[in-house]
Design a protein that fits this description.
The complex is a heterodimer of chains A (about 260) and B (about 250). By secondary structure, chain A is mostly helical. Chain A contains nine helices and no strands. In chain B, the strands form two sheets. A five-stranded mixed beta sheet of chain B has the order 2-1-5-3-4. In chain B, strands 6-7 form a two-stranded antiparallel sheet. Chain B is elongated and about 70 Å long. Chain B contains eight helices and seven strands; from the N terminus they run E-E-H-E-E-E-E-E-H-H-H-H-H-H-H. Chain B starts with a strand and ends with a helix. The chains are: A mainly alpha (about 260), B alpha+beta (about 250). The complex binds iron/sulfur cluster (2 copies) and FE2/S2 (inorganic) cluster.
Amino acid sequence: MAASVSSSASASAIKVPAGVPTLRAGEGNSFLWRRLHSLSGIFPIGAFLVEHFLSNAFATNGGAAYNENVRFLTGLPFVLALEITFIYIPLAFHAGYGFWIWWRGDSNVGDYPWLGNWMYTLQRYSGIAAFFYIGYHTWTMRFSGAHILTHSEVAYAKVWTELQNPWIVAFYFIGLTAASWHFAYGIWLFAAKWGFIVGEQGRKKFGYVCLVIGLALAGMAAGSLYAFITTPESQVPNMQEFQQLQHAAASYVLPALNS
Amino acid sequence: MANKSILLKIKRQSDPQHAAIWEEFEIPYRPNMNVISVLMEIALNPVTRQGKPTTPIFYDSNCLEEVCGSCAMRINGRTRMACSALVDQLEQPIVLEPFSKFPVVRDLAVDRSVLFENLKAVKAWVPIDGTYDLGSGPRMLPEEQEAAYPLSRCISCCCCMEACPQFNQSTGFVGAATISQVRLFNTHPTGKALKSERLHALMGDGGIHECGYAQNCVEVCPKDIPLTRSIAEVGGAVMKQAFADLFHR
Ligand code: SF4
Ligand code: SF4
Ligand code: FES
C-alpha cells in the first residue's frame, strides 16, 4: 500500500501534521454565528417552511382556493420587506454558514456507522439538496416567468405547468423531502444544543416527535404535489392569461425589479 | 478457534518526519491474547511476515487494564484501547494504525497533549490553593456523587476526539472529554467557583458549539461516560451564561 517512501528517504518533502489546535478560550465569534445559524433554521426559516407547506396544501382544495391564498399572501403589507428580512437574508446566511460547517466536518460513517453519525451526515447532505432545490424553485417561481406577486390569479397555472415534467416532479419530491428532513432533525438538534432536552431518554423520545414532524411535512408536500399533477388542464384557472404573461416575461431580466 | 496464527497489518512510521509504511506480521496463535500482548510477542522476534527483520513496534501502554488511557489506537479502523481489544473477537488480519488526528510520535504512539491543554483552558480542577488550611470541603449528596462518579472515570484516552467528525484541524473543536470534565467540575460544590470561567472558555473558537451531535464520542468511550448528556447539559449552561451576559450586565 503506502510503502512508497523507505525510512531512509529524505525528510524534506513530508509535512509533519500539526495536530488539532487547542481551545481558543475567550477568542472569536464562532459561538454567536453558530448559535444564530441554529436559531435561524427554526425561526424564521423553519416557521416559513411550515407556512409555505400549509399554503401550498391549499392546492388540495383546487386552483381557485390556491390562488385565493396566494392573493392574500402577496397582498400582505410591506411584502417585499417581509421577504427580504424573514426569508432571503436568513436563508442566505443559513445556507452560506451551513456550507462552511459542512466543509469543515469530516464525515466518517464508513468507520463509525452508527445512527447518530448517519444523522449527522444526512443533515449535511439534506441541507445541500434543499439548497439546490430552493435555489431552483425560487428562481423559477419567484424571479422568472409570469410574476406571481402582481398576478396571483395565475399562481396555480404556473406551478401546474412547471409540474407537467415528471423529472421536475421528482426533483421537487426529493427537494421537499430533504427540506422536511433537514428541518425536523434541525428541531431535534436545536433542542439538544440549546440544552432544552438533556437526558438520553428524553432525547430519544423527542427524536420520535421530530420524526413524526418530518414525515408529516414530507407527506403534506407530497400530497400537494399529487394534487397538482392529478388536476386536468381544464380545471386550471386562468391558463391562457398565464401563458401570455409567461411569454411576455421571457424577455425580462428580473421581473421582480420591473414590476 | 481453528486459527493457527494471528495475522496483523501495522502502519509504521519511524518518526514524525518520515512517511508511514505498512508491515505485515504473523505470530503463532494462542488463546486469550489482546492487542498489547500480540505487540509484545512481535517485540520478542521482530520479523515481518515476509521474513524481513525489522524493529519492534513502538506503542504506549501502561496499566493493561483500561484505566491509564495510554494505549488508544485505531484497530480495524475504529478507535479503541489496545489492552482491552481481545484478539479472539477481532477480524483478521488485525489492522493497527495510530490515531489519525494526533501527531504521530513513532509507529502507534501519538502526541495527545491537546487534551491536556484543553483541560487547562477550561480550568478542569477544583481550586483549593491558598495560604491557609481551608478545612474539609462541603458535603456532596449521594445523588450528586452518583452523577459525578461516572464523569470522573475519564482516562484521557482521546477516543472520543479521534472518532468525532467535528474534531479536526479546521474546527479546532475542543472535544467531548473536556466538555464532560466541565460538567464534572461545575457540579462539584467547590469546583463550581470557576463555573462561569469554564462556560466562557467553551464559548471561544473551537468551543462546545462546534459539536454536531454525531454521537460517536459516546459510542466509542471505553469508560461508558454519558458524553452526549454532558454536552447537552453544558450546552444549556453555556446558553444560560450567554443570555445572562447579554441581559444582566
Ligand atoms: S456528539 Fe459528535 S460532534 Fe459532538 S463531540 Fe460527540 S462525536 Fe463530536
Ligand atoms: S471521555 Fe471517554 S473516550 Fe473521551 S477521553 Fe475520557 S475516557 Fe476517553
Ligand atoms: S494500557 Fe492502560 S488503558 Fe490500555
